[in-house]
Each structure stands twice: as structure tokens, then as C-alpha cells.
Design a protein that fits this description.
alpha/beta, Endonuclease, Chain A, 3 domains, 8-stranded mixed beta sheet, 18 helices
Length: 489
């Protein structure tokens, strides 16, 4: 039988056609079997069908949480060590308390059942709400450090007061303080490539580039998995976390025309810092493979002040309790009886979170969400708007912070329970990135946070339901288009 060029071409065409559809079906089945939220499944199904070949490649690049075999192995090896350390905390029962408030009780029960640790009392917390105050406190603590300084930040951007932190760390290293710094490869890309980071290394500061961005690594690790924590620990005695990176708002992203970034940090000392130090030790070993000494529990052997700032820390990310922060948010929302105030720069909630927020408003809880009017991400900005109608129809009050980009990530419930940290109300923070949230059950702290949030509201414009319904039709279409990408943002 004579084989013609046309018949060969036909065979190749059919093989290509069936090969492609086999890949589509196999990928679709893989997505379905992951048992992820319906919106996540529908979004990826649309992408792989609408973008031939490219959609399949994007899914394996961005659709699954690949930490990498080396990091997975290290995480598995660290878990028994961390568990043993947290168990040692129970040798000091006076740092624990069952005397939490009614609204906080379900959340602390969740923490205890998931991590083995309940409410930790005797902590002292300062809420710092201006950039200059944050830098002032941090630089002063660095200058007074005597043994070790550990930091994890998503973004380090040179210029202005960020340079003063760099200089303080160099001074600390020169007087013999061990300085360890973890910076996210994507967020701190420009700083890592500059001579500033090399100058810090030359002074003896250990800098680790976390989750390096490299296209050749996509087969082994998801590219957009990021180290999004903001942590500073001084002498295992003072700890910071919150929304602020090491950036001076006067210099950072001024070309985006969204104004200055508005952030908060909390400064803590007390038994809770032992947990922050273990989070850093875990991150350090996962990135470097090197162990560092965990803090001595005996440093907190003195009986703490009885009811001062009951706290818990919730870390998230691959290797940690799955969906813990998502569960914590849902638990806190369903516990609310009177009022919830959210601040977030990125509002792209999961279906479960959206339902919980709307349900809270429908059962009579006063729910307010403050987001920036201008955002540095066009996709997130439009995707967020797709949720406005459901929220407004349920009675949620939406506010847009004017002039500057509100970057604060916080939740205040019934003027008693506070959640402050690095978590945005979006899919990436809830299910993917390395994040940390501080849970604080304390009326005094809540009053300070509430005062700050009221000042945010005074600088915001409320989105009224009747005005929102009058927006142009093309905006409806654009919102729905970006809504399909919401689970991927």
C-alpha cells in the first residue's frame, strides 16, 4: 500500500487532535479529583478549554500547590521537632488560660484542637499605626539587640527609612549580633539584585532568598507560591508582625499612582514570642536545611500578668495545618453577635467566606468592609467588584478608603476579638502563601484597633446599593469576566 504525504498528514492531524483532547480530559479529571471549591474548578475548566494547550500549561504552573520535594522532606522532618517543642510549653501551665471571652471561645477551641495550644496569656502588645512609629520602634529594638535578630519579609525596597533599618542591622552584626533575614524572591527581587543586599552580607548578615523565581523550577514547585509573612524577632523576646513590609511609602510604588501604602504592625513581648520564633526556625530550615536553636521556654518561667492580652498565632502555608486561617476566619465570623469590621487591600473571598460574611449581616450583625479605592492590581480591583452586589444586597456596608492604598489586614469582632497579620481576603492568602495571623482576645487592644478603624472610616466613602446598581453595563461584563479568574488571584 502506497503511503502518500496527505495520508501521513491526516494521521498526524488525528493523533494531535486525540492527543490534545486526552490531555484536556486528563487535566479536567485531575482538577475535579482535587476536591477544591466549585469556583476554583469552574475557573480552571474554562481556562483549559478557552486557551488550548496554554491553559493546561498554566494549570500545572499555577493550579496546584507544589512546594518541591526537598522542602516537603524538610517540612516533614521538622514537624516532630516543632511538636515536641510546643508540648514542652505545657510544662508551664500558668501561661495558658481557658478564661477567654465568649466571642473568642470557638476560635481558641479550634486552635487548641488543631495545634495543641490554646489561649496564651501574659503578653504585652502595642498597636503601631504610622510608618514612622513602626520604623522608630523597630530600629530602636535592633539597636538594643544583644544576641539575635530574625526577620521574614515579602518586600524589602530600598530608599528612605528602609535604608535606616539596613544600617541598624549592619551595626548590630558588627557588634556580634547574629542576624538572619529571609526575603521573598519575587517581592524583594529588586533589593536582592542591588548592592545594598551585598553590603549587608559583607557585614555578616545572613540573607536567604526564599522560593526563588526560576522558570526551570516550575516542574518541581509552583511559581506563584510566595513567602508573604512579615515578621521581626529581637533576642527571642520582642516580636513584630502585621501588614507592613520594609518599605518607605514615600518611595515605594509611587509610579502606580495609588498614593502611599497605609499599614499597621503589632509589637509583642511575652510567652507568644516563643511561637513566633518557632515559625521563623521552621521557615529557615525549610529554605536552608540548617537548624537553629529554638527559644528557651524558661525565659518565660515567671508567672505572667493574669489577664493581659490573651493571644494565639496562626501560621499557614504548605507544611502547616491545611486551611487553618480559612477555618479561623469562618469560626470568628460565625461567632460574631454585634459587629465585624474588616480591612483588606484585596477582597476576593472564597465562596464559604462570602457566605459567612453575608449570613452574619443577614442575622443582624453590623458588618463593614474597608478596601482601598485605588488598587495596585487591575485584575484584583475588577474581581473584587464582582462580589459587591452580593455583599450589599445582604446588608454589608462597603467603604472605599480614599487618597492612599489601605494595606492594613485586620478583623475586629464585637469590639473584643482582633485578628491582625499578613492575610488578605483572597484565595492566595487563604490557601497558598506562607502567612501569619495574630489572634488577640483583649478589650484594651480592641479599643485601640477600633479607634484606628474608625479613623479609616472617616477617610472613606460608602458604596451605596442604589448607586452601585446604576453603574454602566460594560462594568457588569468586565466584573463577571474577571470573576472567573478570582480563584486564581
Amino acid at each position: 500500500m502506497k503511503i502518500t504525504l496527505i495520508s501521513v498528514y491526516d494521521w498526524i492531524s488525528w493523533l494531535t487532535f486525540f492527543g490534545y483532547w486526552f490531555l484536556v480530559v486528563a487535566t479536567a479529571l485531575r482538577i475535579i479529583t482535587k476536591r477544591r471549591p466549585t469556583t476554583f474548578v469552574v475557573a480552571w475548566m474554562l481556562i483549559i478549554y478557552m486557551l488550548p494547550v496554554v491553559g493546561i500549561i498554566l494549570y500545572f504552573l499555577l493550579g496546584e500547590t507544589h512546594l518541591g520535594q526537598r522542602r516537603v522532606k524538610r517540612a516533614q522532618e521538622m514537624r516532630p521537632i516543632i511538636n515536641a517543642f510546643t508540648q514542652k510549653l505545657h510544662d508551664f501551665p500558668f501561661i495558658f488560660t481557658k478564661g477567654v471571652s465568649n466571642v473568642a471561645k470557638p476560635l481558641f477551641q479550634l486552635c487548641e484542637n488543631q495545634t495543641g495550644l490554646g489561649g496564651i496569656k501574659g503578653n504585652h502588645i502595642d498597636l503601631i499605626s504610622t510608618t514612622d512609629e513602626i520604623f522608630d520602634h523597630l530600629i530602636k529594638d535592633i539597636d538594643q539587640a544583644s544576641s539575635n535578630i530574625e526577620m521574614v519579609f515579602y518586600i524589602w525596597y530600598k530608599g528612605g527609612r528602609a535604608n535606616q533599618v539596613e544600617e541598624a542591622l549592619i551595626r548590630a552584626a558588627k557588634r556580634g549580633v547574629v542576624c538572619r533575614l529571609i526575603l521573598d524572591s519575587a517581592g524583594s527581587r529588586q533589593f536582592i539584585k542591588t548592592g545594598e543586599s551585598q553590603k549587608m552580607k559583607d557585614a555578616g548578615i545572613q540573607i536567604v532568598e526564599s522560593l526563588k523565581v526560576n522558570l526551570f523550577r516550575f516542574m518541581f514547585r509552583r511559581l506563584d507560591l510566595r513567602q508573604h509573612r512579615k515578621i521581626a524577632i529581637i533576642d527571642n523576646h520582642i516580636a513584630y508582625t502585621g501588614s507592613m513590609n520594609i518599605v518607605d511609602p514615600n518611595f515605594f510604588k509611587q509610579d502606580k499612582h495609588v498614593g502611599k501604602w497605609v499599614d499597621i504592625m503589632i509589637r509583642m513581648h511575652g510567652p507568644i514570642t516563643t511561637l513566633m520564633s518557632t515559625i521563623f526556625a521552621s521557615d529557615w530550615e525549610m529554605e536552608t536545611g540548617k537548624k537553629i536553636s529554638l527559644p528557651k521556654v524558661t525565659d518565660f518561667a515567671e508567672t505572667p500578668e493574669e489577664k493581659k492580652h490573651i493571644m494565639q498565632l496562626i501560621p499557614s502555608g504548605p507544611g502547616y495545618t491545611e486551611n487553618m486561617i480559612h477555618q479561623a476566619l469562618l469560626t470568628a465570623i460565625y461567632s460574631a453577635q454585634e459587629e465585624i469590621i474588616f480591612t483588606t487591600p484585596y477582597l476576593v473571598p472564597s465562596d464559604d467566606l462570602l457566605h459567612a460574611i453575608c449570613t452574619a449581616a443577614q442575622r443582624g450583625v453590623k458588618v463593614s468592609i474597608i478596601i482601598p479605592k485605588k488598587n495596585d492590581s487591575m485584575m484584583v480591583n475588577w474581581a473584587s467588584r464582582a462580589f459587591f452586589s452580593d455583599l450589599l444586597e445582604s446588608g454589608v456596608k462597603l467603604y472605599q478608603f480614599e487618597n492612599n492604598l489601605l494595606h492594613t489586614k485586620s478583623v475586629l469582632i464585637d469590639k473584643q476579638l482582633s485578628l491582625v497579620g499578613t492575610v488578605n481576603l483572597d484565595m492566595r492568602s487563604l490557601w497558598l502563601n506562607f502567612e501569619v495571623t495574630a489572634v488577640i482576645d483583649d478589650t484594651e487592644f480592641a479599643e485601640k484597633l477600633n479607634s484606628l478603624l474608625q479613623s479609616y472610616l472617616n477617610q472613606s466613602i460608602q458604596i451605596l446599593p442604589e448607586e452601585w446598581r446604576k453603574r454602566p453595563f460594560w462594568q457588569h461584563i468586565t466584573e463577571r469576566l474577571f470573576y472567573f479568574f478570582a480563584p486564581l488571584l
